[in-house]
Amino acid sequence: MRFLRGYIRRIDAMNRRIGRVMMYGIFVLMGVLLWSTVSKAFFVPSLWTLEMAQFVMVGYYILGGPYSLQLGSNVRMDLLYGDWSLRRKAWFDLFTVCFLIFYLCVLLYGAVSSTAYSLGYWGTEPFSFFGGLVTGAEEIGHMEQSSSAWRPYLWPIKVVMIVGFVLMLLQCLSELAKDVLRLKGEAI
C-alpha cells in the first residue's frame, strides 16, 4: 500500500506541474492567432500561423489531459453516478479505467508507429526502430514534412503526442490505484 501511495503522490505531482504549465498554452495559442490576424490585415500573411496554432493546440490538449483527469474535470454522464456511494463509484471507475488504459495503449502504439514513420522508418516494428536509434543500429531516413506551404517536420508534434499518451497512461494507473485504495477502505 505504501508503494501505491508513493506512486500516486509522484505521478499526481508531476502531472499537476505539467498541467499547470500547459494552462498557459492557451495564451501562446492566442498570440499565434493574434499574429495571424495582424499579419493578414497589415502585412504579408504568415505561412506558419495556422499549422503552428494546430500544433500548440495539440500540445495544450494532450499534455493538459492528465491534469484534467486528475481533477475530475473530464466529461462524464452524471445521471446516476452523482448519487452513488464512494465505494460504488470506485468499483465503476475501476472497471471503466481498464477500458481507458486499453484505449491509451492502442493510441500509444499508433503514435509510436506514426513517429517512426515520420522519421523515415518504413518497417513494421516501430519499437525496435527506436531501440536501434539508441544503440546506433538504425538511422533516420527521409523525414516526413507537412504538405502545406510552410512544410514543417512532423516528428516533434508526434513526440509530444507520445509524451502526452504516456502521461495520461500513468495518470490512469494512478486513478486505478486510488480506486483500489478506496475499495480497501484506506486513505489516499
From TrEMBL:
Location of the protein in the cell: Cell inner membrane
The UniProt keyword set, sorted, is: Cell inner membrane, Cell membrane, Membrane, Transmembrane, Transmembrane helix, Transport
Coiled-coil intervals: none
Annotated Tripartite ATP-independent periplasmic transporters DctQ component domain ranges read 29-180
This entry's Gene Ontology molecular function terms read:
transmembrane transporter activity
* Membrane topology, as annotated: Multi-pass membrane protein
Question: GO cellular component annotations, sorted alphabetically?
Answer: plasma membrane
Q: Where are the transmembrane segments?
A: 21-42, 48-69, 90-112, 153-173
Q: Which domain of life is it from?
A: Bacteria
Broad class of where this protein is predominantly found: membrane
Record family assignment: Belongs to the TRAP transporter small permease family.
Relate the assembly described in the record: The complex comprises the extracytoplasmic solute receptor protein and the two transmembrane proteins.
Say what the protein does: Part of the tripartite ATP-independent periplasmic (TRAP) transport system.
* Name of the protein in question: TRAP transporter small permease protein
Which species does the entry assign this protein to? Answer: Sulfitobacter delicatus
